[in-house]
Amino acid sequence: MLRSTDPSASFDTAPRPDPRPGEPHSYPVRTEEDLLAARHAVRAATLALGFGIVDQTRIVTAASELVRNAYIHGGGGTLTLTLLERPGARGLRLVISDDGPGIHDVQQALTDGYTTGAGLGHGLGGARRLMDDFGIDSAPGRGTTVTATRWTTP
Amino acid sequence: MNARPVAGVPILRLGNVLVTGLLDELDDKAALAFTDELTQRITAEDASGVLIDISRLEIIDSFVARTLMELTTMARLLGARVIVAGMLPPVAITLVELGLHLEGVETALNAERGMALLGWQQNRQLPEGAPSAALH
Amino acid sequence: MSSSETATRERVINALDERADKIADRWVQLQLQRSEAGSGISEAELHEEADSVVAALSASLAGGLPVERVVTAHPELHRVITELSLRRARGGASPTDTFLAVLTLKEALLESVQESVRAADDALAVALLINRLLDAAGALSFNTYVEGREEIIGRQSRQLLELSTPVVRLWRHVLAVPLIGTLDTARTQVVMENLLQGIQDHEALVAIIDITAVPTVDTAVAQHLMQTVNAVRLMGADCVISGIRPPIAVTIAQLGIDLSSILTRSTLADALSVAIKITEGDQLRAEASAVR
User: Fold this and answer.
1) Looking at residue B20, which CATH number applies to its domain?
2) Are C201 and C287 within one domain?
3) Residues of B with CB under 8 A from a CB of A
4) Can you give the pTM of this predicted structure?
5) Gap between the Cα atoms of C28 and C56, Å rounded
6) Which uninterrupted H or E stretch holds C242?
7) What are the pLDDT digits (tens) for C80-127?
8) Do C26 and C105 fall into the same domain?
9) Which CATH number goes with the domain that contains A104?
10) Which of A26, A87, B55, B113 could form a disulfide with C147, with the two C-beta atoms 3.0–4.6 Å apart?
11) Which residue has the higher pLDDT, B85 or B9?
């Protein structure tokens, strides 16, 4: 992939060679109103990147699941959006992090039907199916960070 | 007749049918208020059917899906049949990919067809005193 | 960076700046001479491209980046080289022509620098630097070319998919998708999107998916079919699958996929007759309850 140079080797101060370096934008997830604002921001980003209507819906739905998780289980957190570009495709990366109690068993949390609260237990596993790349970093007491990316199809 | 609950969504009555809709801006509090309002109206007005128009919902996540399923179950327990009408194609695709099939929820292509399923005809003369406009 | 390397760089930068037009013209000339099939790019475009590449080369060397990393780490140079190869990939140029574009730039640049550098030692150092710089550019352009071609192939196969999955209206409120050939995930995805849009556009009550001409079905495809059926239901329409041939029935049974809740018929004709009954039944039900 041409997209990025190895960050550990970046002794120079030149910007990354992304044709359009994506400045990450962060949005707080502290109140119910923030959930809606976050969703609108994600929708605007998918529109700007030229995603089709079905992909827009997938990404906004995944984002909605993830920020609601952070709000309910993580006691609030942050959503960070980064616009990505590689030859032939553009992408949107969502990073949702909270300082909540963390997840004991990440594998179990990704299983359909697993729930600790308000949803239907399809939140994490479902969001993973809606995105191309998906990763969870969590441990008890350390909070949870979910990173999810989806790319446009040519 | 057109009470405005906290959710900001009007619930209209057409004969035995209550007609309402959901908007994208549904949060926990609004969902609770809406459920309360709707169940009270079903009992108070002895409704036999409920049409929920969702043609303006741009996404359905598991929270909204759960709200719809609970509404359907509660209404059924109170003796009313619920039709959820007008789901947009991208929303339907995303829902099944999420793994949510809205089990037990009856659907219709649009409000008009949903009303037909609940016993209403497009050209039927409205009873006197009933609101003459559809939901939108 | 050693002082000798700094001096070498200075020489190359000077040549690039002072003889920019000459280098660019020579480069375009060489490309036009060498290319057999033509790069599919007009001479005017080649000139414009050459000017921007020469300017970017000079600017990138002026920064403190090590020469091996200049091409990948200097945004402007990275951009112009990427565009150079994407332009050729999209224009239908061969890989050779794309590679030739960078090789001829090297030649034009070497010719020009050698006119100004007299000492043999200096000339060698300059040649080595230019080689290292443009070999990296060659590698980048080749990578980008391949990805550009993949992008085109991807777009073409998507267009083919659209063509190969027509949604047809068979009856009032009845749609059908006759599927022909091998089904994969991408194709079933397109089928689902087209079908749901068709249902909305035609206010369909029943959608028939005919798989008579589908040779095999694997787990992924069977699951996608199930998803399609479920999505059709969520839209408020019914779904009938027709033409499940014996081998596919065996596969589905062996895969343990539960199709019991799905309406199936052996032929498209049977499916249509069921569909018409459903639409009439719907009409009757509605009339009956309206009269009540």
Assistant:
1) 3.30.750.24
2) yes
3) 24-25, 27-29, 58-63, 65-66, 69, 89-91, 93-94, 97-100
4) 0.69
5) 16
6) strand C238-242
7) 988 888 888 887 788 888 888 888 898 898 888 888 777 778 888 888
8) yes
9) 3.30.565.10
10) A87
11) B85
Q: What distance in Å separates the CA atoms of residue A127 and residue A134, rounded to the nearest whole number?
A: 9
Interface test with A, best of C147, C194, C223 (most A CBs within 10 A): C147
**A9 in a domain, yes or no?**
no
State chain B's mean pLDDT as an integer: 83
Residue A2 lies in a domain: no
Residue numbers of the domain that contains B94: 12-117
CA–centroid distance for C125 within its chain:
41
pLDDT band at A112 (very low <50, low <70, confident <90, very high): low
Mean pLDDT, range C156-172, rounded to an integer: 79
Which is more confidently placed, C110 or A18?
C110
User: Model confidence at C71, in pLDDT bands (50, 70, 90)?
Assistant: confident
Query: Which member of B59, B62, B69 has the closest CB to residue A122?
Result: B62
Claim to verify: residue C7 and residue C125 sit in the same structural domain: yes
In sequence order, what DSSP letters do the residues of A105-147 get, joined into one string? -HHHHTSTT--SSSS-S-HHHHHHHHSSEEEEEE-TTS-EEEE
Which partners does chain C have (≥3 C-beta pairs < 8 Å)?
A, B
- Give the per-residue pLDDT at A115: 57
Residues 51-90 on A with a CB inside 8 Å of C are 54, 86-89
Best residue of A30, A67, A122, A150 to probe chain B, by most B CBs closer than 10 Å? A122
Name the residue among A123, A76, A127, A126 with its Cα closest to residue A97: A76
Cα gap C101→A88, rounded to integer Å: 21
Hey, are the CB atoms on A14 and C78 less than 8 Å from each other? no
